[in-house]
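To the wet lab folks,

You asked to see what we're planning to order before we commit. Fair enough. Below is the target structure as tokens, and below that is the sequence we designed to fit it. If anything looks off to you, flag it before the synthesis order goes out.
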């Protein structure tokens, strides 16, 4: 039994497991059964091939003129036969986003495999790797400008981030302190950053050993080292000459070419001026109303108290209400006086101060009381300041003087002749009216201040648009305008020639 087993070789054992089904499957996978592919109907599968997504037939790339590089960009491929049967089938290509994703994934896989195969540090310890990285960082050529710098420039992106977030959080090195020749072993210099030391390199071509001619007009001297001129005056003379050459033509172009922005600014300026006139007119009306109150008060001083004022007092029912300031229950007759006292009490506890004193020509309506402790001026209205401006004492013979009206707003020409102390209907009417006028004055002054600021901005924009610097630096070539200017100049030249010819003939 043992001899028979020893006599059977491995090949004989393999032949026992060679079944027809397995052999056909192996032949199909290995393409060794004589199956034909592609339009060339050959069984060669060693070349690049692509399959149709409809019939699943394989085609050689060189037979259908599709390279392996182009096949990576195809999303779905349909052969010619399938497209003839169904014209709606079209080969779909990957979008740019899909190409980038596909390329990034494939490149990442290739890079990882290449790094794993060719990484020289994969068998080294962490300490050795850290040392090698430190050596690479400290490697410098000692010849470029980055090696000689000892301080940060303060203008590059890295320095700006350091100043913003702090040096402890940002460990990047200034771009001007990086060695150019030590980056990857290449000797090619990087392109200079826009924020680099332009002040030190802009005049390098002027630092020559041989003498150079000064750029000043009519100057025969040699220029200074690192400059275009022999002195500052030559530079000023050249600038004046250029201004005299360029500015007249620019002014002529500006005068002939219409500007929409200028028209809009002129309209806006007219509107602002109209609003300023309206505000000033309102202020004049408020001054007039203030004088009218003075007249009413002076008229009441020259009148005696009406002896029948007690008969005119209406007998109100006994009613009560609650104060809006303190919340206490009060009688309806004394409600106005009580509320006024409560308001003055709480208003005096608050402070409205400023370090600047109000400077208004004429009637100053603000309190402006100087507090020596806080070194501030009170900015309440003088009429409503209960802390520093007390109400004058009322005598027994003082008349109320409040003008009487019908239908709430229609004046009758008469006024209240009741005693000022006892009149509850018109309590502190003079104070309230003056406060109303002063508050309206403040609103109009603030509005006038805004309008003046707006006018200043419009005037500044108009001045900058047609300023000397703007005309010299910014210019758009207008062909139609330049043709008109050139024609006008030609006509003037022709007229001059004709006048000269006439004078010669006369002579």
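Sequence we intend to order:
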């Amino acid at each position: 039994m043992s001899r028979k087993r020893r006599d059977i070789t491995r090949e004989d054992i393999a032949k026992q497991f060679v079944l027809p089904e397995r052999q056909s499957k192996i032949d199909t996978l290995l393409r060794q059964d004589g199956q034909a592919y592609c339009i060339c109907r050959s069984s060669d599968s060693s070349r690049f091939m692509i399959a149709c997504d409809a019939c699943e037939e394989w085609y050689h790339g060189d037979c259908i003129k599709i390279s392996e590089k182009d096949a990576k960009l195809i999303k779905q491929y349909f052969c010619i036969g399938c497209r003839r049967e169904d014209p709606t089938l079209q080969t779909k290509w990957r979008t740019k986003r899909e190409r980038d994703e596909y390329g990034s994934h494939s490149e990442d896989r290739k890079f990882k495999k290449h790094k794993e195969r060719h990484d020289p540090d994969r068998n080294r310890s962490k300490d050795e790797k850290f040392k090698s990285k430190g050596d690479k960082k400290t490697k410098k050529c000692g010849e470029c400008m980055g090696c000689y710098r000892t301080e940060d420039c303060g203008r590059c992106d890295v320095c700006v981030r350091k100043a913003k977030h702090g040096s402890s959080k940002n460990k990047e090195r200034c771009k001007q302190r990086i060695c150019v020749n030590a980056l990857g072993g290449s000797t090619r210099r990087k392109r200079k950053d826009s924020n680099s030391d332009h002040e030190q390199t802009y005049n390098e071509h002027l630092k020559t050993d041989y003498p150079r001619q000064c750029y000043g007009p009519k100057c025969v001297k040699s220029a200074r080292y690192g400059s275009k001129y022999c002195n500052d005056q030559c530079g000023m003379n050249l600038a004046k000459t250029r201004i005299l050459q360029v500015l007249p033509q620019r002014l002529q172009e500006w005068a002939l070419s219409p500007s929409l922005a200028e028209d809009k600014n002129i309209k806006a300026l007219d509107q602002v001026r109209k609003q300023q006139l309206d505000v000033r007119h309102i202020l004049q009306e408020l001054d007039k109303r203030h004088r009218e109150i003075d007249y009413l008060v002076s008229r009441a001083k020259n009148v005696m108290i009406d002896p029948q004022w007690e008969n005119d007092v209406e007998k109100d029912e006994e009613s009560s209400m609650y104060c809006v300031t303190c919340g206490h229950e009060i009688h309806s007759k004394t409600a106005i006086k009580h509320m006024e006292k409560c308001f003055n009490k709480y208003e005096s506890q608050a402070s409205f101060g400023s370090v600047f004193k109000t400077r208004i020509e004429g009637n100053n309506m603000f309190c402006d009381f100087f507090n020596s402790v806080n070194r501030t001026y009170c900015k309440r209205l003088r009429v409503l300041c209960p802390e520093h401006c007390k109400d004058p004492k009322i005598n027994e013979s003082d008349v109320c003087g409040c003008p009487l009206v019908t239908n709430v707003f229609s004046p009758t020409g008469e006024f209240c002749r009741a005693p000022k102390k006892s009149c509850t209907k018109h309590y502190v009417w003079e104070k309230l009216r003056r406060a109303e006028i002063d508050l309206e004055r403040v609103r109009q002054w603030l509005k006038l201040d805004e309008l003046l600021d707006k006018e200043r901005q419009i005037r500044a924009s108009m001045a900058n648009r047609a300023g000397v610097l703007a005309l010299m630096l910014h210019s758009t070539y207008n062909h139609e305008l330049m043709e008109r200017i050139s024609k006008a100049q030609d006509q003037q030249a022709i007229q001059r020639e004709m006048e000269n010819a006439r004078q010669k003939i006369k002579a």
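Structural context that might help your review: The mean pLDDT is 76. The first helix runs from residue 2 to 7.

Thanks,
Computational group
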